[in-house]
Each structure stands twice: as structure tokens, then as C-alpha cells.
Amino acid sequence: MSFDSLGLSAEILRALAEKGYLEPTPVQQQAIPYVLQGRDIMASAQTGTGKTAAFTLPILQLLEQRPAPAGKQRRPVRALILTPTRELAAQIGENITEYSAHLGLRSLVVFGGVSINPQMMKLRGGVEVLVATPGRLLDLAQQRAVDLSQVEILVLDEADRMLDMGFIHDIRRVMKLLPTKRQSLMFSATFSDEIKTLANSLLDNPASVEVARRNTASEQITQFVHMVDKKRKRELLSDMIGRNNWQQVLVFTRTKHGANHLAEQLNKDGITAAAIHGNKSQGARTRALADFKQGGIRVLVATDIAARGLDIDLLPHVVNYELPQVAEDYVHRIGRTGRAAATGEALSLVCVDELGLLRDIERLLKKPIPRIALPGYDPDPSIKAEPIQQGRGSGRGGATRGGRGAPAGDGARDSRSGPRRDGAQPRRSASGRGAASGNGGARSGGASGNGGARSGGASGNGGARSGGASGNGGARSGRGGNYAGNGGTRSGNR
């Protein structure tokens, strides 16, 4: 089957030819016709199978063929693509720019962690395709910088992760800003039954596209487990990288602190490494990824959320330095390698504490993962399993008691401070424009992080706020206030 047989326009086919795309992947073969027909879609396909092109190509064609709606705005937002992370948003934006090279459409990517003013200025100039993270989109809507009343097509990409991160309230708030009559598409690597139930409440009689079996790893990926004592993991990792002369390795940890510490230790071992996670600035994350792609560093250490949307061609090695708390995340992690038709290797370093997590993963995969053993690294049988300690901001997070707070988690919300919550706003300070601080700061009538308390509220790791909790980002004030997360400040018209 060719792209031409899918009914794509000559302009899009030309752009695909310039990119060297010869034939559509299975998910593209199935999804593109449905999108062109105007159907809602719930699509499940493994990472690296071409999900982005499966929705962007037909969307671009539909927008090019349909006349723009009449209105005051010359280029209204007609397609909205929501993603959970900055990296994924940026990657989709790059793809759209390439695919629309010969079309007259204008696109824009907006996410948190960077100045909002340039984004507002570009929106004023008119944008037809908007790629956004939920928090920044709501910031822009709050400031009346974006009008979503003429959106014709909505895409939720990595939908399972967005819902998992606690963005469900943000997503529902966005839905209220959209026309009732629209086409909606959900794309994700996996869909649990719970996610499917929620998806069906957001979609209208969706067509189902399921390329790979649910929660399965690509057959292109060779998987191994090496049992090792926790205190010797870093030594074993360095040994394997050096012994096998691995030049490009993506390593996963559970926590931000763990990612930083491991990158530092690898550099001391003479192995160039960098860490990316939600506490890193967007500039630092972009530089680290660019260095990794270009061979400037051999190892990129990442947390689960930060790695979503990373597009690294022909990545040969993924290492689970620590197993994820949720088995489905294992599939997401190792899906960074073995993309499309390429092959890859996924190695998990497992200590006695993680045997339960390993069993969960193998139960999900419905098969055991082969064991390997490097001489000299046999685990000490006298060491007993201990509960896995979750560091600050690790894991999937959850709301604190007593409120409908946002979940804690790496990169929660799209910048620093966790997803917004629906419902009551935090109380203002006495001045009406109080600023909240995270990691130790306190405010008048506000919240403190890391042990501080406030009147009528509670303290917590990263700070607390009225009726909810923040994740790794410090507390925040009410309308008109500013909030700081992990030492950084950001203003917002709330």
C-alpha cells in the first residue's frame, strides 16, 4: 500500500517524498481513512509505529480542503492537539511543519516552562493548528489569548499518560471551551480498560484502531533482566557500557534525584551522561537531548514523564536502572528502542526489592523476560527485600488528603506545579496578589513547601494549597498570584 492510495493530496505526498517516506505503517493505513471520513477514533499502537503522522497527515488535508469558518479572526484555531509533555509537543510541532511544507496552513506549539508572551503574540497573528500542553493552554485561555470556539478537530495524544498524570480535570475544562460538534481523536501506546471507559465518554461512536496487542512490547526489542544488588547497579551499568562499547544508551530511573545522581556518577566513571526530568529547564532538556542525538554524550538518564515524546532514531539500548512502579510504564520505556522496523535491546537491572515489580511486568507481557548474568555481579542471597522508597516527585502521584488536589509526579502539569484542579480556587493573600513558594518559601496567608505551614492549611513536600496539593512544584496562590516550583517563579493571571 502507498500513501497515494490513502487519498492524500499531492502537496502532502510531496512532503512525504522529501522526508523519504515510502509506504504507510499499519496504524497509518488504518487511521488515516477514518480521520478523512470525519470519524472519531480511539487508536492504540506501540511507540514508534508512526502515530503522529497517522493523525497529522489527514488533519492537514482536511483543513486545507475545507474552507475556513467565517469570522473576525483571519486564521482561527481549527485543530487542537493536546499532549502531556513539552518534548512530545515540540516533536509533533516539528512533524507538522515538515508535513505542511507545501500547504498554506500555519501552526504553533505552546507549552509551559518558557515565556508566555511570545506565544500570545503568535496566536494574535492567527494559527490554524495548535499543539499544546493542557496547563499552558488553560493559562492562555484564562488571559483570553486563544479562542477555541472554532476548533473542528481535537486530538488527545498519549491520552493514557495525560489521564494518568491527573490532567483529566484540565482536559474537561478544555472540552468546555470547544464546540460541541467536533471530530475527536485519541492516540496512545496503550489503553487500559479504565482508560477506554473514560475515552468512550469523550468520543462519539469512535472507530477502534489497534495495531499491536494491548500492553505488549515490540517484537523488534530484545529484552533481558540482570539480577544485581541495589548498591552495585551503577557499577554494573558502567561495566556493561564500557565492556560492550555502547555509544547511545537511554537509562530510566524512578526519581528526579536518582536521575541526577546517576548521571553524576557515570560522568565520574568517565562515561559522558546528562539527566532530563521535570525540574530541568526547557533549555537544559533541549540541550541534553541534542547532545545525546549528536553523540556528544553517551548516556541520557530520564524519568518516565520526561522521556515521553522523545524521538530518537535507531536508539540501540534502553536500560531500566530501576523498574517502574506501574507495569505499563515498562512498555512505554522500552518502546524508545526498536522503533518502526529497527531492532533494539532493553536491559533491566533488578534488585531483590523489585522482584514484585518484575513479576507484574512479566504478567503483563504474558511471558518471562530472559535472565543474563555478568560474572562477578551475582546478588547476595542474604540481602532481604525492603519496601521501595519513593523520592520526591516520583511515581504517579496522588492527591493529598482533604482536597481534590492534583497528583504529584515528575513534570506534573506541563511546567512545574502539577495539574490544575477543577473547583474552588486557592484563597488569596491579604493583598489579593500573594505569591506562593515551593521548597521552603512561605507567604502571607499562603502556603509553604517542605515543612512550612499556613493558617488553616497544611504543609507538604513541595507545599500545599487550598483544597488540594501540588506535585514537586511548591504551592501557588489564587487568582492574580504567582507561584514558584522548585525554586523557579512564574507569573500567571489566575
UniProtKB/TrEMBL annotation:
Chain intervals with Gly residues compositional bias: 392-408, 435-494
Domain Helicase ATP-binding, first and last residues per copy: 32-209
Keywords for the protein's UniProt record, in alphabetical order: ATP-binding, Cytoplasm, Helicase, Hydrolase, Nucleotide-binding, Ribosome biogenesis
A Pfam family annotated for this UniProt entry: Helicase_C
Record-annotated Helicase C-terminal domain positions: 220-380
Domain of life: Bacteria
CDD domains the record matches: DEADc (cd00268), SF2_C_DEAD (cd18787)
Domain DEAD-box RNA helicase Q: 1-29
Motif Q motif mapped to chain: 1-29
Location(s), subcellular: Cytoplasm
Disordered, as annotated region: 371-494
Secretion signal span: none
Gene Ontology MF: a single term: ATP binding
Biased amino acid composition, Basic and acidic residues: 411-425
Known role: DEAD-box RNA helicase involved in ribosome assembly. Has RNA-dependent ATPase activity and unwinds double-stranded RNA.
Name of the molecule in the record: ATP-dependent RNA helicase RhlE
UniProt source species: Sodalis praecaptivus
